[in-house]
Amino acid sequence: MGKVLIIGAGGVATVAAYKVAKNPDVFTEIVIASRTKSKCDALVEAIGNKAIQTAQVDADDVEQLVALFERFRPDIVMNLALPYQDLTIMEACLRTGVNYLDTANYEPKDEAHFEYSWQWAYRDRFEKAGLTAILGCGFDPGVTSVYTAYAAKHHFDEIHYLDIVDCNAGDHHKPFATNFNPEINIREITQKGLYWENGQWIETKPLEIHRPLNYPHIGARESYLLHHEEIESLVKNYPTIKRARFWMTFGQEYLTHLRVIQNIGMASIKPINYNGMEIVPLQFLKAVLPNPQDLGENYEGETSIGCRIRGLKNGEMHTYYVYNNCSHRAAYEETRMQGVSYTTGVPAMIGAMMFLKGIWRKPGVYNVEEFDPDPFMEQLNKQGLPWHELFDIDLEL
Length: 397
Ligand code: NDP
Description:
Blueprint: E1 2-7, H1 11-21, E2 27-34, H2 37-47, E3 53-56, H3 62-72, E4 76-79, H4 86-96, E5 99-102, H5 117-120, H6 123-129, E6 132-135, H7 143-154, E7 158-168, H8 182-189, E8 193-197, E9 200-204, E10 210-215, E11 219-226, H9 230-237, E12 243-249, H10 252-263, E13 272-274, E14 277-279, H11 281-288, E15 302-313, E16 316-327, H12 328-335, H13 339-356, E17 364-367, H14 373-382, E18 388-391
Helix pairs in contact: 1-13, 3-4, 7-14, 13-14
The structure holds NADPH dihydro-nicotinamide-adenine-dinucleotide phosphate (NDP).
NADPH dihydro-nicotinamide-adenine-dinucleotide phosphate is lined by residues 8-13, 34-36, 39, 57-60, 80-83, 85, 103-104, 138-142, 180-181, 184, 292-293, 340-341, 344.
């Protein structure tokens, strides 16, 4: 059906590559390219499919990307490197006529700030070129946005309250580690909180608002209000939403480490001079922290991510909770990666599948909730991320 190029060879890219290889009727040719080619080769070896091609690329460099895309002529590129590379890859897609998908919105390296405006600015150019760009196709953003679209299509006339709840109740047996790229993860969590209420954005101190929430099969976990990117597009695409918030669980041990890291300046993204060399403290920290890709082997427990929604159907107020629980062990047994990489890599593959099947294909730049959720929801059940629904329950929020 089509040729896919995966950029990146980290945790998320590894899961996506395994899953792409398991769907040969859709992904008829596969290329994996990243900064370190040996990691792509090791991945191909692990998957055991010699037909997958590999290449080296610095995705910060548009010229290198253009040469790569011209060499392999993919139908779609899955950007599973870092959010810093979103714009260079989109630029190269426009120059070579390639469609685009990612899992995280652009942020500049020198400013811990993320928002969609930079990528939405490409809308006209993608539209004129007849190319599709699918933004934020991981779990959150990604599946949570599709869940919201599905709720709006089937269960509500108007969504009024949306709470996205993300619980990781797993234990990797390390004193401190992040579940995806440490640099991106720590930048996200140490930011101010932000949520949408009555037509405006409300800012909070980092991790200021928190409360225990109950998660299916897990129980109560302290959950912290964070700024998360999908809220920005969802309140725009569903203007009936009166309040939208995002919650994530953290353990006390994690938060204590995080506080120390910040207090001693190791979360800083300002370059410093060390022994005549310029280093960024957070990048140095990443180099000494456990690699998220190596956490899988001893990871126990599960993640539980979903949407808790309140709104009107036929003039009456209803509640709805749609969620997935993912076992770290099952994820590892299938892909050698832990559950957080798994819950991101699987939806990325499904998004690319939706494009190649011609179901999610329209020129322009779109967030995932702007496409038909039904075929995507169907694939979630088939590809390892089954979902469950609860109706008219107490949402706790
Ligand atoms: P990793 O750090 O494990 O992997 C990143 C990969 O990108 C590495 O292989 C790295 O290369 C490669 N890379 C980095 N810079 C470049 C570059 N300039 N050129 C080419 N390759 C490069 O990250 P994860 O797999 O954990 O995360 C990947 C993405 O997924 C991130 O954008 C993250 O924000 C997003 N994410 C989204 C989630 C969601 O639900 N939507 C959840 C979790 C993550 P090298 O191996 O040489 O370092």
